[in-house]
Design a protein that fits this description.
Layout (H helix, E strand, L loop, with lengths): L12 E5 L3 H12 L3 E5 L3 H9 L3 E2 L3 H5 L4 E4 L4 H9 L13 E4 L5 H12 L4 E4 L2 E2 L1 H7 L2 E5 L3 H14 E6 L6 H29 L4 H8 L7 H12 L8 H17 L5 H18 L7 H9 L10
Helix pairs in contact: 1-6, 1-7, 8-10, 8-11, 8-12, 8-13, 11-12
Length: 310
């Protein structure tokens, strides 16, 4: 992890808007790196958790960003990002001139470009910087960040980027490119999870030893990062949400919208999206995305570990 530069005698100040599983770890990583961090979340429990770990907290987003050099937005989607910036009490009107807004939400590249233009018109910088790696890597400051923006935005954001990431990909000088890269990642991730869940439940239908299936496949050509990472949830019968079904309802929906606009066929995305929609409709939307395996089990009568407790 790179060290960050700062003005002599003054810590770089950062505000984190959104202290969920990812934002909390990102805020903690910046604190460890020596940044002066203030956090805000709409959920009191998230604020209390950050405060219990020694974090400074604010009562509103606008209060959190007062005097901040860097604002890191770790909210769910484009609509929440726009509200954070321009809604009632939004941060865009409270940030100091020259500060940078780092947007980490997954969104349509066109929306990222629009938000960037509106932010920069106010004398601020905007860095389109979606993230990958999950809560565990966020807590360690080892995220992958897919970023695009002006040279000035990167320079202003550098202390936070260095603190939060193992790898920062600098993907261009305009917002939207980082968002597009993230959507390619989400296309693959969503399809791979669906394929992994289809395969492990098909194995269960064949009466195979699922632990042995996991051992064999993870040592074979059919393995994927998602199979290796998600199938242990299925084997444990534990669908506590580390990444929820609704994330891929949203993200594969964005991919499909982007593809339709380009007249580009995405049949694998379409098939996977239908499975996520079905799982959400069956009441699993807030459960772990490996719950697709439970859906396959319900449709087929296959027996998975713990499915009688779902």
């Amino acid at each position: 992890m790179s060290s960050h530069a700062e003005s002599p005698g003054r810590a770089v100040t950062a505000a984190v808007i959104g202290l969920g599983s990812m934002g909390f770890g990102m805020a903690q990583s910046m604190k460890r790196a020596g940044l002066d961090v203030v956090g805000y979340d709409i959920t009191p429990a998230a604020v209390d958790r950050f405060a219990a770990e020694g974090g400074r907290c604010a009562d509103t987003p606008a209060e959190a960003v007062q005097g901040a050099d860097i604002v890191v937005s770790v909210v769910v989607n484009a609509a929440q990002t726009e509200t954070t910036l321009f809604g009632p009490g939004g941060v865009a009107g409270a940030m100091k001139p020259g500060a940078v807004f780092i947007s980490s939400a997954t969104m349509d590249p066109a929306v990222a470009r629009d938000l960037s233009q509106r932010v920069e018109a106010l004398g601020l910088h905007y860095l389109d910087a979606p993230i990958s790696g999950g809560a565990a890597r966020a807590a360690k400051g080892e995220l992958t960040i897919m970023a695009s923006g002006s040279v000035e935005a990167f320079a202003a954001a550098r202390p936070a980027l260095d603190a939060m990431s193992a790898k920062v990909y600098e993907l261009g000088d305009a917002a939207g490119t980082g968002a597009a890269f993230k959507m390619i990642n989400q296309l693959l991730a969503g399809v791979h999870i669906a394929a992994a869940c289809e395969a492990i439940t098909f194995a269960a239908k064949q009466g195979l030893d699922l632990d042995k299936v996991y051992e064999v496949i993870t040592a074979s050509a059919g393995n994927s990062w998602m199979f290796e990472n998600r199938i242990p949830h299925v084997l444990a019968g534990d669908y506590t949400p580390l990444s929820a079904i609704e994330i891929f309802v949203k993200d594969l929906g964005i991919v499909q919208d982007m593809a339709r606009a380009e007249r580009y066929p995405v049949p694998l995305v379409a098939a996977a999206l239908q499975m996520y929609l079905a799982a959400s409709g069956a009441g699993m939307g807030r459960d772990d995305d490996s719950s697709l395996a439970r859906l396959y089990a319900q449709l087929s009568g296959a027996q998975l570990p713990g499915t009688n407790k779902a």
